[in-house]
Every structure is written in C-alpha cells, then in structure tokens.
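Lecture notes, part 5. Sequence design as translation. It can be helpful to think of inverse folding as translation between two languages: the language of shapes and the language of residues. The source text, in structure tokens, appears below.
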C-alpha cells in the first residue's frame, strides 16, 4: 500500500469509527429515553452515587461528552443541583474508558470483520423495516459493528505507514515534547469530538509501532483534557449553575491530567518492562489500564476535596442574583422534555417569589418598600414563561411530559390571577383598618408561612385545608357584617368594602392552594409515572365555581 493509500485508509477508518460512535450513542439515548432521566435523578443524591450513575450511563451511551452536555442541561433546568451534576460528570470520565477496553480486548485479538458485517446488515434491516424502538436499536447495533470495521481500516492504514510514521517523528520524552503530545491529543479530541475515537487511534498507532508507550500515554492525557471542549461550548449563554458545571469539568480534567503525569513516573518504567515480555498485547492493555487508573485516582482525590473544589469554582464564577426566568434557555426547545422541565422549575421559582410577596402584603405593618417592583418583576417573568411554554412542541411526547405541560399551564393561570389580586393594594389596606379583618388576615398569613415548611403531598394538603378554614371564616365574617349593617351598626358602604376585602383573602388562598397542588403534580410526573394524567379543565373550572 502506498503512503497516500495508507493515509486515506487510516482516515477512512477514523471516520467510520466516529460514525459508529455517533449511531451507537444516538440509538442508546433514544432507547434509554425516560429511564435515563429517572436514573440520573434517583441515583445522584450523594456525590459517590452520582459518580456511579455517571460511569454506568456513559458506559451505556459510549459518550462522555453526550452525558456531560446532558447533565449541564439538567443543572441549567434545575433538575440537578450543581453538586449532583458534578458527581455524574466525574463518573462520566470513568465510564468513557470502557471503549478503550473493548478495543484493546476485542478489536485486536479477534478478527471481527466476519461478525461485524452481518451485524451491519441486521442493523440496517432493523432500521429500515422495524418500529420506532426497533429502528433505534438497529442503528445502535449497526453503530457498534461499524466501530470495529473502522478499527480494522485504521489498522490496515497504519500498517501501510509503518516505514513513514515512527516514534522518532513524534515529540520526545522532554518537557516540551510532552506539552506537544498533550496538545496533539487535545486537538484530536476537539476535532473528532470523541475522546474514545482518540484513544482507539492511539491504540492502533501503538500496536503498529508508530508511537511508543510513553508517547501514547501522554497523548491520552491530552485527549482526556480535550473532551471538555464540547461541554464548554454547551455552557455558552446558559445559567450560572450550568456554566459552573462546565468550568468544574475543565478544572477536574486539568487536575486529573496533572495527577496522570505524577502517576506516569512510576508506571512508565514498569510498563516498559511488562511490554518487553508481553509485546503488543501488553502495551495495549497497559495503555487502557493507565487511562482508567488516572481517571479513578482523579475522582477519588476530587471527592476527598469536593467542598473546597466547589468553593473554588463558585469563587471563579460568582453566582449573581439571576432573573426568575434564567432557566428558560431557547436551546432547550429542541428537546421538549428538557424544556418542559425548565419551565416547571421556573414556575416553581415564580410561585415562591409571589408567595413571599403575598406574605409581605398581609404583614400588619403593610407592604415593604420595593414590593411593587418585585411584583412587576414577577409579572414580567410570567409573561416570558408563557411565551417560552408556547414554543414547546408537544408532538410525539410521552404521556407524563404532556401531563407535566398541562400542569404548568394551570400554574401559570393561577399565578397570573394571584398577581392581579396582590396588586389590589386597597383590599390589603382595608384588612388592616378593621380589627376582625386584621385577625383573619393574620390567620391567613400564619397558614401561608406554615405551608412553606411542608413538602410534596403534605404541602398541597395543608394549603387545601387552610383554604377551607379561611373560606369558612370569611363566610361567618360576611354574615356578621351583613347583620351589623342591617342593625345600623355600620354603613352599607363600609360593610361592602370589608366583605370585598374578606372575599379577596379567600380568593388569594384559593389560588395559593391550586398553585401548590399543581406544582406537586409536576414533581410527581417527573418520575415519568404512567398513572399521572393531566387534571381535566372541567375539574379546575368546578373548583373555581366552588371558590366563588
């Protein structure tokens, strides 16, 4: 094979390997679907569990970049906290090393062409003639087979370049040489957008004798660092928490790269001795062992120093007070499920913001300075959220996502009506003038404060019961006011004004109850449970009539 033919063959092999990685990742992402979201939310309560979840998910998807970008989106949408997201990102670095183990253990020891070609045929048939899940499964199967066909082409191309590409043509084992090798590895990963493809290329070059073990190890360190480029691009224009996650990923990989160089000092001489005895098989195995080992060491060290590490990231990228709609990233619209989750987290933030305004409005001392500006901020946030929600496409979405979307619409409706009532300052003023109304306002305020200490179903139930209590007291107060007016103890105008203020109290309590009820249903449906159905509009209308 000529030199040009060898180069073209090797490049074609890299392209085929990348195509296989893309098909495998996309197919597995679709097949995992809601299960992947549930796994990440359920098993990331501690950093160590997050590491395990990140490693498992990345090993399944065969793409640390895809997992990292997904996690950044979850953090930006408020589904994962910054600390939870870090655990998954750390674990992704370990999970991505599985590709190297597959290539080293199967790609060189077995002649997989005879097996890979039938798998490509089978995957193609599944993709053409199967149902939705079968098509994606066929794509993943064909992608897996293409990995090894691409690897075979890379080997064939590199064999044709054996006399041209030699270790002497690569930078040597000096400080400058290592820096150049790290740069080569990082550039390879940034260009291919896959550290797995880079590691496979290094394994092929090592097996062909084009580079030595030390050179391959340093290039793999660079590839580990280069994989952060995709995540950093994904954070542009995102929330502070998302940008902090991307920065933490970069700092972690830089730290891991430094630890890898320290680990290479004792590892390299031992590896050379084992390679002298075991030959190419030992060289390939030791390279993937080194790749996995320095990533595990990096995770262990960072978990030990997690608190100061998080403090460093927050100090480098300070979290300024964000707008209520900071999670509404237009880029999420291409993933309706993530966009719905972002909208759900946003209406939760607006609800808490407006709940605080209502508590302040009912304070005996009256509204605080700046409350009007905060209310205008909330109303602008509501308008922006409604615009964002209106752009989300619900076509072909699962039942739980549709249910969550419908609940968000209910929350937006009640928040708008609650905001309208909070803006009616004359009602709040009337409450403080009449002793009986002031007592009812105090009872209402106590219930609103107490309800914030509850969570989930208990919170929704509390506000529901409190709304009934306020409603019953409002009716008794109205009867008393009518009786007083009938006996001439009060003017009709004063009685009607106080009745209107009491009814205002009942109505705001009603909206608070419905808001927290729908927020609870949103949280339940995030588990993608099939038994969560949208609340019928007729039921909501019936409650409106009962409240009146």
């Amino acid at each position: 094979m000529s030199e040009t033919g060898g180069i073209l063959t090797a490049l074609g092999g890299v392209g085929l390997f990348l195509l296989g990685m893309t098909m495998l990742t996309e197919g597995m992402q679709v097949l995992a679907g809601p299960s992947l979201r549930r796994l990440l939310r359920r098993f990331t309560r501690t950093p160590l569990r997050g590491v395990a979840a990140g490693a498992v998910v990345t090993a399944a998807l065969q793409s640390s970049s895809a997992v990292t970008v997904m996690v950044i989106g979850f953090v930006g949408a408020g589904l994962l906290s910054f600390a939870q997201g870090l655990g998954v990102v750390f674990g992704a670095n370990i999970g991505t090393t599985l590709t190297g183990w597959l290539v080293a253990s199967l790609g060189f020891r077995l002649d997989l062409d005879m097996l890979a070609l039938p798998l490509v045929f089978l995957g193609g048939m599944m993709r053409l003639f199967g149902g939705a899940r079968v098509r994606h499964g066929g794509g993943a199967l064909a992608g897996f087979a293409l990995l090894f066909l691409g690897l075979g082409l890379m080997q064939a191309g590199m064999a044709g370049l054996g006399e041209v590409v030699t270790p002497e043509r690569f930078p040597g084992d000096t400080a400058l040489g290592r820096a150049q090798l790290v740069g080569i590895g990082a550039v390879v990963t940034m260009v291919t957008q896959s550290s797995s493809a880079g590691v496979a290329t290094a394994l092929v070059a090592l097996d062909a004798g084009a580079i030595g073990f030390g050179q391959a190890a340093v290039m793999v360190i660079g590839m580990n660092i280069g994989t952060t480029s995709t995540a950093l691009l994904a954070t542009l224009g995102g929330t502070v928490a998302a940008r902090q996650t991307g920065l933490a990923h970069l700092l972690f990989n830089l730290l891991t790269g430094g630890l890898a160089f320290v680990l290479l000092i004792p590892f390299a001489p031992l590896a050379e001795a084992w390679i002298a005895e075991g030959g190419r098989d030992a060289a390939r195995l030791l390279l993937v062992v080194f790749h996995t080992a320095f990533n595990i060491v990096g995770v262990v060290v960072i978990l030990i120093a997690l608190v100061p590490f998080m403090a460093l990231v927050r100090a480098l990228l300070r979290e300024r007070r964000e707008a209520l709609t900071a999670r509404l990233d237009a880029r999420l619209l291409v993933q309706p499920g993530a966009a719905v989750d972002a909208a759900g987290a946003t209406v939760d933030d607006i609800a808490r913001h407006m709940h605080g305004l209502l508590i302040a409005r009912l304070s005996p001392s009256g509204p605080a300075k700046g409350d009007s500006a905060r209310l205008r901020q909330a109303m602008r946030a509501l308008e922006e959220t409604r615009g964002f929600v209106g752009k989300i496409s619900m076509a072909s979405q699962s039942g739980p996502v549709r249910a969550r979307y419908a609940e968000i619409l209910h929350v937006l409706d009640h928040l708008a009506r609650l905001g309208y009532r909070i803006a009616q300052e004359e009602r709040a003023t009337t409450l403080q003038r009449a002793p009986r109304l002031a007592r009812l306002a105090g009872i209402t305020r106590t219930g609103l404060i107490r309800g914030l200490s509850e969570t989930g179903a208990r919170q929704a139930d509390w506000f529901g019961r409190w709304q009934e209590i306020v409603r019953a007291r409002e009716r008794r107060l109205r009867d008393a006011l009518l009786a007083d007016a009938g006996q001439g103890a009060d003017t009709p105008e004063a009685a009607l004004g106080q009745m209107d203020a009491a009814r205002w109290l009942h109505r705001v309590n009603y909206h608070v109850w419905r808001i927290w009820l729908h927020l609870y249903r949103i949280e339940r449906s995030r588990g993608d449970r099939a038994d969560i159905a949208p609340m019928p509009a007729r039921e909501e209308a019936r409650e409106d009539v009962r409240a009146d």
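The translated text above is only one of many valid answers, since several sequences can fold into similar shapes. The CA atoms of residues 467 and 509 lie 5 Å apart.
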